[in-house]
């Protein structure tokens, strides 16, 4: 994706740092478990700085400066491109980029979500599918998901659709007799991974959750993954797949 030619757009850089220590590992926080119904394997972050720039190049220049500091404790960086002079929801963007703690680009977005509101504001076409070369994970891979103030372990169920897959589905939808259903199905195809996460309650019960996560928020584990967490993730993926298969609709 090329940077927007609209030089009135604003580029917002968010810097995420480790809450406690750069050496922090994935764990079930017992203190949180004492006050919450359930807790997932994770570690904590904080959004430490926010910068506003006239270009992506300026935002990347700031990232490089932060990385060069020897005392750097940054987890990573996130840049969103926003149109100036337009009303948007807080989660809307034209484009976005995710950078790792060393400042290297991990992934850039393949466009905004397919919500008509975003497409109108951002003046963009619907999601057309990812280049297979940019789909870094496959089903069964253990990943980490950035949640803003924490990072959670997950396992991949389905990967983002490729351009070829999207076009096949849209061709079927165009030939569908139910236009409204087709439009709804088409809008559901976004740039995201389907993942499974899990949480543990105080009595030891384990519950899984299935969610769609934007590709830019799905990263390789930045910490060693304890074997017990990896095993549980695989068990919960199998459980989710079996229970979906058993649904009566």
Q: Care to give the gist of this entry?
A:
This protein has six helices and eleven strands. By secondary structure, it is α+β, with helices and mostly antiparallel strands. Strands 1, 2, 3, 4, 5, 6, 7, 8, 9, 10 and 11 form an eleven-stranded antiparallel β-sheet that branches.
Question: What would your notes on this structure say?
Answer:
The chain has one domain (9-246). Helices cover 26% and strands 31% of the residues. It contains six helices and eleven strands. It has helices at 30-33, 56-68, 116-122, 163-174, 179-187, 227-245; strands at residues 10-18, 38-39, 42-53, 74-82, 95-100, 105-108, 142-146, 150-158, 192-201, 206-214, 218-219.
Helices and strands, with pairings:
Elements: E1 10-18, H1 30-33, E2 38-39, E3 42-53, H2 56-68, E4 74-82, E5 95-100, E6 105-108, H3 116-122, E7 142-146, E8 150-158, H4 163-174, H5 179-187, E9 192-201, E10 206-214, E11 218-219, H6 227-245
Please count the helical segments.
6
User: Care to count the β-strands?
Assistant: 11
* Overall number of structural domains: 1
Give the biggest sheet.
11 strands, antiparallel
Uncertain regions spanning at least 5 consecutive residues: 1-6, 113-121
Radius of gyration: 20 Å
Tell me the helix content.
25-40%
Into which percentage range does the β-strand content fall? Answer: 25-35%
Distance between the termini: 38 Å
User: What do the pLDDT scores average to?
Assistant: 83
* SS-derived structural category: alpha+beta
Order of helices and strands: EHEEHEEEHEEHHEEEH
What characteristic shape results from the CA principal axes? globular
């Amino acid at each position: 994706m090329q940077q927007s030619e609209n030089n009135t757009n604003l580029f917002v850089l968010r810097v995420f740092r480790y809450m406690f220590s750069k050496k922090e590992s994935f764990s079930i926080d017992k203190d949180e478990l004492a006050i919450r119904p359930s807790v997932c394997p994770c570690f904590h972050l904080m959004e430490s700085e926010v910068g506003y720039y006239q270009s992506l190049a300026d935002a990347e220049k700031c990232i490089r400066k932060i990385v060069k500091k020897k005392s750097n404790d940054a987890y990573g960086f996130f840049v969103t491109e926003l149109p100036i002079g337009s009303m948007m929801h807080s989660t809307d963007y034209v484009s976005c980029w995710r950078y790792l703690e060393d400042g290297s680009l991990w992934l850039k977005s393949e466009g905004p979500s397919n919500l008509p509101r975003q497409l109108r504001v951002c003046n963009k076409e619907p999601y057309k599918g990812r280049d297979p070369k940019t789909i870094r994970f496959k089903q069964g891979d253990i990943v980490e998901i950035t949640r803003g103030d924490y990072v959670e372990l997950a396992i991949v169920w389905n990967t983002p659709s490729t351009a070829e897959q999207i076009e096949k589905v849209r061709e079927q939808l165009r030939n569908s007799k139910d236009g409204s259903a087709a439009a709804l199905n088409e809008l559901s195809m976004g740039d995201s991974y389907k993942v499974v996460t899990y949480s543990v309650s105080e009595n030891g019960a384990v519950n899984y959750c299935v969610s769609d996560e934007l590709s830019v928020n799905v990263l390789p584990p930045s910490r060693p993954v304890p074997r017990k967490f990896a095993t549980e993730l695989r068990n919960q993926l199998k459980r989710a797949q079996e229970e979906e298969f058993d649904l009566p609709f």
